[in-house]
Amino acid sequence: MNTLQLTSRERATLIRSRFFARLPQSTVEDVLKSASVSAYEERDVLFRQDENVDDVFLVLSGLVRLCRMGKDGREADVALFPEGEMFAETAMFLKQRATASAVAAERSVIVRLNGGKLQQLAATDHEVAQALIEHLCYRGKMTEDLLAEDRLLTATQRVANFILSHCPKDSTSFRLPFQKNVLAGKLGLAPEALSRAFSTLRQSGVMVRGRLIEIHDRPALERF
Amino acid sequence: MNTLQLTSRERATLIRSRFFARLPQSTVEDVLKSASVSAYEERDVLFRQDENVDDVFLVLSGLVRLCRMGKDGREADVALFPEGEMFAETAMFLKQRATASAVAAERSVIVRLNGGKLQQLAATDHEVAQALIEHLCYRGKMTEDLLAEDRLLTATQRVANFILSHCPKDSTSFRLPFQKNVLAGKLGLAPEALSRAFSTLRQSGVMVRGRLIEIHDRPALERF
DNA sequence: TCACTTGTTTGACCGGTGTCAACAACCCTT
DNA sequence: AAGGGTTGTTGACACCGGTCAAACAAGTGA
């Protein structure tokens, strides 16, 4: 971990992010004044479950996993944040300890926004409050989607879903945006189960070579 | 369904609810001006998945289940709202169709708040925005908890958890706040699985008679 | 390039949970 | 009190998916 300056690409990511996109430049600058940028290696821990977290995080590049651990030591991912996503607001607004650990799932650059500042802005600036509300609605829906998928779909169906939703409608192939490892975690699967799901889907015309996924029969996938 | 006046008990529930408790009387009155109260029987549908929902709902008494249905017709509950809980904000703020259906899980009285009014208040009144933010954080955490439980715990462990968190620390028994049916749904279980979990827990000193649960060995439950 | 580490796949096995069917318990109405 | 519907329980069974172990592939660094 290391304190850095924003590169122009990172700044662009931040400004385009769901949360900041709707805010005026001046507000963005204001938030950034009390923010710090850090780089993390894969597996670096941003914060741990049960710690106090006073800041809000935003992924400038890379990928962050939110995971909870059970008392037996096993752990389960509850969210996965790609570039542009913001997280860890809940602990702050609820004045609670973190309910999960945040771990870099690959080399990442993260900006850490001052929680107090953000909270104060949310309380005085309608735009910020509005952005926060929409952000939280979005996040809530994400989690609810995950929960519903877990409860309604088998492993293979979840993988089929993922493929369909990540392969551009007009294309027949795409690259996985992250390691299979990580994908398994997001889908609530052991890596072995993910692998098996892929091999089941081969019968429906899904070819997997490394991170490259080819779909030869979209309707077959949708039927799953 | 039927339009009603607020009884004084219902009014009290509303004012004590997580969302309204922090707001001044005048704001509450303002919201109520464009609200309507309805009574529902068990299984009555408040709204259906994919419908447009312009209002926000708050449970004055009773219980509401939020459930999604998979394409094969099976359905999974994604949330359960007891007295005092508010829901269906997401559809409004995200301007999306409902991602789940809302069904009364027992005879219930629900107040329906005008969505546009609430949205307008959220945009102009800091207190309302603040209350909404905390509400959404709370809801997000609830869903995340459910997801984590599903992924980390077995059926029996989830039931043990539920019992522990609902039995007052100083007591040795309590009544289930709703039908086992509904509990099974909330825990993501088939009713049969819930039943089996209870009978497993009998070995750890849990006695179940109808809705009455007795705990004779708390530590044993915690060990599960 | 080779060795080494890390990630992925496959097989074998087994425990957990959904499903179906039958039955028991309970509630409500008459 | 009887009867009918609903709700909860139990057993049998299948299957999904977790775990362990081993083989294999890919990436990394010297």
UniProtKB/TrEMBL annotation, chains A, B:
* Cyclic nucleotide-binding domain span: 19-139
Of the GO CC terms on this record, one is:
cytosol
Q: Which Pfam families match?
A: cNMP_binding, HTH_Crp_2
* Keywords carried by this UniProt record: DNA-binding, Transcription, Transcription regulation
- GO function term, MF aspect, one: DNA binding
Q: Ranges for the HTH crp-type domain?
A: 153-219
Family matches, as CDD domains: CAP_ED (cd00038)
Cross-referenced InterPro entries: cNMP-bd_dom (IPR000595), cNMP-bd_dom_sf (IPR018490), Env_Response_Regulators (IPR050397), HTH_CRP (IPR012318), RmlC-like_jellyroll (IPR014710), WH-like_DNA-bd_sf (IPR036388), WH_DNA-bd_sf (IPR036390)
Gene3D superfamilies attached here? Jelly Rolls, Winged helix-like DNA-binding domain superfamily/Winged helix DNA-binding domain
PANTHER family, per this entry?
CRP FAMILY TRANSCRIPTIONAL REGULATORY PROTEIN, HTH-TYPE TRANSCRIPTIONAL REGULATOR ARCR
Tell me what this protein is called.
Answer: Crp/Fnr family transcriptional regulator
Query: What organism does this protein naturally occur in?
Result: Sinorhizobium saheli
